[in-house]
Input
Amino acid sequence: MTIHVAHRSGAMPAPNLRRKPNLFQRILLHWNDYTYIAPALIVMLLVIAFPIYYTVELSFFKTPANLSMDKKIFVGLDNYWAILTSKSFWNVTYNTLIWTVFSTFFAFVLGLGAALALNREFLGRGVLRAVLLVPYVISAVAASYVWKWLYHSDFGVIGALSVQFGFTDRPINFLDNIYTALPAIIVVNIWKEFSFAMIMLLAGLQTVPDQLLRAAQVDGANAWQRFWHVTMPHLKGVSMVTILLLLVTNLNSFIIPWIMTGGGPAGATDIWITQIYQMAFGRIRFGMASAYSVILFIVMMLLGYFYVKALTRGDEAKVE
Amino acid sequence: MSTLTQTSPRPRPRPKKPIGGWRWAGRGILAFLLLFTALPMAWMVITSLKSQLAALQYPPQWWPEEVTFENYILLLSPNNAVGQEFLQYFWNSLYVSILSTILGVAVAVPAAYAFSRFRFPGRQMLFFSVLLRNMFPAVVFLMPLFLMMKWLGLVNTHGSLILTYLTFGLPLSIWLLKGFYDNIPPQLEQAARIDGATRFQAFFYIVMPLSSPGIIATAIYAFIMAWNEYVYALTFLNSKDKLTLPVGLQRFFAEYATNWPGLMAASFIMSVPVVVLFLVLQKYFVRALTEGAVKS
Output
């Protein structure tokens, strides 16, 4: 491997192979490599590393409403304390959990069902897959308005249909009712993202060897047993990645709740992200909102740890 | 991958059997999902073909009694205020998305290549930080970036969006492109090197042309994400002539509150470019989505 590396980077093999070059020497040896990543590195430092650092810094300060940051006041952990002891925080956290868990669960289950059903040749398969993917590619803003219209309290088609079929005697006001608002927007979220799970799992299903399935069939395994004992183990890795990505996306989602309900009615659909946005750009309390972001950020890092682990399973082995 | 990309239909010998319960269950799921997916979109199109008066009826007209294209004409003709506004949003979205995509991909291509081929110190750590970016919520970046744009005097300019769209466009592009480069055998460049090409020449003349499908896929993905982006545009822009479509749509809703058919027509027009791009280049898009997550 050492010779391989030296060859690729265009350097002569080191005369003394037993002595490993130290970090500084290795960096010098590879200086040319860094020119390839330098532009990306500069951009990432500017738009990613600095914002992360600055968010953490701001979370310890009380910030003035006119946003002149040289007048910010250090308050230590006060922002965190204020958030964690506020009643609304636990309410919002509860909503966030419901939103994230239900969205992820149903998007994954529907995606898995669709992937399994699509994993055989039939007429119109390609068209069907494309149609199912359309919600995933269109703008969440457009999707939110379409669903807002579907849920409309007076002229919404869903209300009209449920009257038509005799479920209720008058249209339901989905988005203005504290019990139905959150489930209603979760449905929109599932509509938007289940096909992401579908396409990931469909790709995962290609890795299930046909011979294995046929061998199981010859051995007398029924459809369920083949699915559970042959297909599922092959889908484990991709399922992990898919679920993690869905969890992260859902924890980060802003557009659907923001446009459809704006967090209302009476905070029934307020989740972390909408709360943070409201705090930062509605009430202009950057310090408080930063502390909130850091809390969210910590949760993300926990998920991120598993994500990187799941993604780099193969990569690690290749490098060593 | 072969069935997914549909390049070579693999002959699969299947035991001839009557269609069992599981297959019916599969068909049931597909039928349900098709209705679930398509009906809202169909209703969007049907509503957009109604007059305002026809849309606000109870019970609704399941099919417009009088099909009218007035909403589309209103939005797309530059001769009235609404049309001018909408076309301006459309142009702004196009401009911002294309520029940020080009910038992101141009910066990502050499970086992804380096991550794929070179073994420089810090490679693993830097690449992990690229991956970890996917974990950060946009709001973590929103406040510092807003302040940064204020200091740079970029608030309410398209420059602020082009720059900030790199926060998601760049890591994504590096990640996707690295996957594509990993699949190109390094022997090709080694052969070119032996023939006297410099390392950069080998990259530029051998690897770049081979990876153009990957670059196209990545660019589409980045374009769609930029086209649909809402949070940064909502925060950084405030003057009417600068808005991009997602924020413009919201503006439209606030101004013409009851014009649902117009809003549906606007949503439809806004979805057309991404859906067309997606349908034409579906193969690449699907590959871009699943790249990296599936290792056989």
Residues 1-14, 315-320 of chain A have pLDDT under 50 and may be disordered. Chain A touches chain B through 110 residues (CB under 8 Å). DSSP finds 15 helices and two strands in chain A. Residues 87-118 of chain A form the longest helix (32 residues).
